[in-house]
Amino acid sequence: MTVSPTVLEVDRLRVEAETAAADLVLVDGADLRVGRGEIVGVVGESGCGKSTLVRTLIGMLESNVEVADGEVRLGGETVVAPGRDASAKVRGSRVGTVFQDAARSLDPLFKIRYQLREVLARHRPDLTGAQAAAKMAAVLGRMGIAEVERVLDSHPHQLSGGLRQRVAIALAVVTDPELVLADECTTALDVTTQAEVVSLFRDLVRDTGVGLVFVTHDLLLASDLCDTIAVMYGGQIVEAGPTARVLEAPRHPFTAGLLASVPSWSTEGPLVGIPGSTPRVTTEFRGCRFADRCGRASAACADDVGWTGGRGDGVRCVHPLQGDPLLAGPIDKEGH
Ligand code: SF4
Asked: Considering the entire predicted model, what is its pTM?
């Protein structure tokens, strides 16, 4: 598909947290580009930094967490950088966010009609009452909701989980944002509803040209929806590329490990989990974050590992794989 101009640019983003025990690095050197009409998947295990990345983009970091380096631009304008956070200006208007739990987006005390109207009143004051009413009905229709009036007159608890998540997406997109951030927003849904939400996002992006960042631990789901995938581990993007390339020829051993643990990709061998867990990365940490769990680790992996390849298609690994996702074992004599 034709993509661009660029909506979101994340450059060398580093986010740190000050804790009583140590200073932690939550996101390190993250680069990401999202074009108009493009769906970028951010995939990784729980605790890999993907949700911190999203919260940084919308300025919702905890008080002990700060941007230490890099910047985030929306439509070419810097909104997040060290000592600068203009994300409140764009949150809700130019950037819509959908969280895992619709309860975080919906107020249990108010009917859906009131909540949608409030969002429009805050971010689209140019609309008349009639225009706002038409927009609310249209956005629910776009979400595949047939009984628009019933939903508008309902409180969140009167709707099913799937319907609540559709309404949460409607709240995120009713202002016609340039960018939507979906943070594990299908995780709490059953498989059928997950597929419906994925289809809904696909149609939304195709019809409106909005850019979408789809954050998930579910590689299978990401592969179904995303044009490109960025794999995160230990706060770093360790591999990125077009979805087909990442799935068919993963270069990072962690990506290969993720694939080996998904039944659909492991038909030629046994399902293999990745032993161990994500490291706690302090500011003193050096070397590859995956080394303790990697069958290809060598002495060279003890130094900081740089990015190989182009922006948006490359890998952070000293001994990248050469194409077979099931060969994530020790390196050979040539270092492959
Ligand atoms: S080969 Fe080295 S750099 Fe690559 S993932 Fe394994 S430990 Fe990290």
From this structure: 0.91
